[in-house]
Here is the input.
Amino acid sequence: QVQLVESGGGLVQAGGSLRLSCAASGLAFSIYAMGWFRQAPGKEREFVASMSASGGSTTYADSVKGRFTISRDNAKNTVYLQMNRLKPEDTAVYSCAAKFGTAYRLWGQGTKVTVSS
Here is the structure.
């Protein structure tokens, strides 16, 4: 079964840290670029970060640059999102996605992150 499964979400105080994980199964993980997205209540889904298949290239949304770090372990078929200095506005459901060609076509179910002030 081809799937992405996120974990690591939870409740954290502002200024704290969380590390999200996204485990892939049923696909050749190492050949796909991966991304993290988030959707806050009442808002549209937005891009957070992405990493190329090799891990040599990363891109971040301006709102998380310098605080969040995306990484991947192709041996473990897992992509991570280290989130530091969290802010209440980071509260959202975070989802990972695999990029097939030019579009993200495989999505996980998401993990909820709540940052209290």
Residues 33 and 102 are 10 Å apart (CA to CA).
